[in-house]
């Protein structure tokens, strides 16, 4: 494995599995466990249509229960594998491995996970990559521990050296660092040569400080999908319109404007007086498909149509994710894709 040839694959490149952690009574899902289990069952059913699912469980009882629920849903259990490890919660996008690859194997980047800047206890989740690696979960891999707070949901890459992120999140985690300093560090660790920053965009009910995966995603090296807002009366309108203008001003490596795909805006979803972050941009790309969070909103089918236009060669599969946004995240947030050959 040579530093020069390491690269961070785009999410649309071939995968070996999707990594998730099963919700249980010891996680923050405890109060609504039944509802969120239904989402996880639907998610595993969707993943295993296309590739394996690797499910972290906290003990044998949780594994037995998850296996029984998935089997009863007639999921292809030959495509389900369980691995034991303790965890605080199930947001694998932020506590799971960010994986560099080259012709000889993989490097698992193990950044600090601080519970989104100390908002929640994350002592077990911060050890998750190390524990999974030591357990032999991953093939042909080494682990690089990096004493720097970075969540997987805070970045998106095109697989060819361009990284997209938001200033709000990285500045919140590292208030004393300049944009130039942060760009240099991200480019070095993640093997990028372009770092594109967004200064606008947020969602009420999001406690990640504007993770880019709730707002803007690469669909190809020349295409970007983003969460739009076409309701001038909505509190998000000005910020998301400003974000759309920022995206229109970005240029590809070849100096061309990106092809932009605006996702529709769902009606406000409020829980106990608190607005929840229902973003269609929090989709997951798997082998041959895009799994899209749906919220039971009339524009769900419109979001499917936008993603089908952005990903014409992939099937778009809706996964009901309304229970997830109660805990301030959605489908992409609870998953981490693993590149082909890693498991």
Automatic annotation (TrEMBL):
Keywords from UniProt, A to Z, are: Hydrolase
Single GO MF annotation = protein-arginine deiminase activity
Q: Which InterPro entries match?
A: Peptidyl-Arg-deiminase_porph
Keyword Hydrolase assigned: yes
Q: Which biological process terms from the Gene Ontology are attached to this UniProt entry? A: putrescine biosynthetic process
- Protein name (record): Agmatine deiminase family protein
């Amino acid at each position: 494995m040579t530093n020069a040839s390491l690269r961070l694959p785009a999410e649309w490149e071939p995968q070996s599995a999707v990594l998730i952690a099963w919700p249980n009574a010891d996680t923050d899902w405890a109060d609504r466990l039944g509802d969120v289990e239904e989402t996880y069952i639907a998610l595993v059913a969707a993943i295993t249509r296309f590739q394996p699912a690797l499910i972290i469980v906290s003990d044998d009882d949780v594994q037995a229960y998850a296996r029984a629920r998935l089997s009863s849903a007639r999921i292809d259990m030959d495509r389900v594998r369980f691995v034991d490890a303790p965890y605080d919660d199930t947001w694998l996008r932020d506590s799971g491995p960010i994986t560099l690859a080259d012709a000889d194997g993989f490097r698992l980047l193990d950044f600090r996970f601080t519970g989104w800047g100390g908002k929640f206890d994350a002592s077990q989740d911060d050890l998750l990559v190390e524990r999974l690696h030591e357990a032999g979960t991953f093939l042909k891999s080494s682990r690089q521990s990096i004493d720097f707070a970075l969540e997987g949901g805070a970045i998106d890459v095109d697989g060819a050296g361009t990284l997209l992120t938001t200033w709000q999140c990285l500045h919140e985690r590292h208030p004393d660092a300049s944009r130039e300093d942060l760009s240099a560090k991200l480019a070095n660790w993640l093997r990028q040569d372009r770092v594109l920053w967004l200064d606008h965009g947020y969602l009420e009910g999001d406690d990640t400080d504007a993770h880019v995966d709730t707002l803007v995603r690469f669909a190809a090296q020349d295409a970007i999908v983003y969460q739009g807002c076409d309701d001038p009366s909505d509190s998000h309108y000005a910020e998301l319109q400003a974000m759309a203008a920022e995206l229109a001003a970005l240029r590809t490596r070849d100096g061309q404007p990106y092809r932009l795909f605006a996702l529709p805006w769902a009606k406000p979803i409020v829980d106990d007086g608190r607005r929840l972050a229902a973003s269609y941009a929090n989709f997951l790309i798997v082998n041959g498909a895009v799994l899209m969070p749906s919220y039971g909103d009339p524009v769900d089918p419109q979001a499917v149509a936008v993603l089908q236009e952005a990903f014409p060669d992939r099937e778009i599969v809706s996964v009901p994710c309304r229970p997830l946004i109660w805990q301030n995240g959605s489908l992409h947030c609870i998953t981490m894709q693993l590149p082909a050959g890693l498991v």
